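Open question from group meeting: does this chain pack into something compact, or does most of it stay loose? Before anyone orders reagents, we agreed to write out a predicted structure and look at it together. Recording both the input and the output here so the notebook holds the full record.
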Amino acid sequence: MIQINPLGSSSAGNAYYITDGHTALLLEAGIRFKDIQRALNYQTAQIAGCLITHEHGDHIKAAKEVMRAGIDVYASQGTLDALGLSSHRAKRVTAKQQFRIGTWTILPFDVQHDVSEPLGFLLANQAGEKLMFATDTYYIRYRFAGLTHIMVECNYSMRILDQNIAAGRVPAVMKKRLLNSHFSLENVKDFLSANDLSKVQEIWLLHLSDNNSDEAQFKREIQELSGKPVFVAER
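Structure tokens returned:
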């Protein structure tokens, strides 16, 4: 059974611990390693690998420390090059080419963000569960069959963003950046509507904006749309 433990989910830093009861993984390493250790009661030796989506600091802050702790980091060549990671612990992965870590079979897929080679990940375990993880993208072109767990960015609402711009709380220039780099509430709804949710057990909303989101609203609207339990990752 998949268990998801968000360790950080905001522009300040993103990291998530997941396990299927056999193999534990870290998704992103965007908070201080000592905070990761503390959150996991210093049981980091059990982590079999760390998946990194892209090179922005709020996703890779602890990547080098993670490797020094003996944990392999998996990322695209573009991300590894941008970070200057060349250790034997730095493992290159490629979109649409499966690889395995312990009991997980992992399929990276390309996403859309303002970096060199960003990825999302589809993780399947031996119990037949499937987890999709996607953050920092404005579009997901793929459809996924048999998902049981969804971890997806829900950064902002267009309505809240427009209200903030009109009130002068957010610079107008931010709108173009968000539209071309982050997944909105409206994007999440479109994505969920395009996928078969019949087996989905949990939906996790990630990386909510401090200024342009409403946690209660986002949770309510996604629950109403999907009919599934919805959780908002801690910020």
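Observations to bring back to the group:
Residues 215-226 form the longest helix (12 residues).
Residues 149 and 202 are 5 Å apart (CA to CA).
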